[in-house]
Amino acid sequence: MAVFLLIVLVAVVLGLVGATVAGLSYLLVIGIVLLVADLALAAVRLSRRSRRHLR
Predict the structure, then answer these.
(1) Dihedrals φ, ψ of 23, to 5°?
(2) Contact 21, 13 (CB under 8 A)
(3) Distance CA 55, CA 17 (A)
(4) How far apart are CA 10 and CA 17, in angstroms?
């Protein structure tokens, strides 16, 4: 869980830096991609965990 929160924090920081500093918009894209990938990974983990409890 700590790794998930760390990656979300890094994605937000990269997004903010990319949005505010001129010429670093690629950081915004990297931050968005990292956030989406991390949320997808969390959804997969959550769905696997919920299936185990149903059986």
Answers:
(1) 90, 0
(2) no
(3) 45
(4) 11
Residue-wise pLDDT tens for the chain (55 aa)?
788 889 889 999 998 998 898 888 888 888 889 999 999 988 998 888 766 655 5
**CA–CA distance, 16 with 13 (Å, rounded to integer):** 5
CA distance 30 to 51: 32
Instruction: Read off the pTM.
Output: 0.74
CA dist., res. 40 & res. 36, Å (int): 6
DSSP string, the chain: -HHHHHHHHHHHHHHHHHHHSTT-HHHHHHHHHHHHHHHHHHHHHHHHHHHHHH-
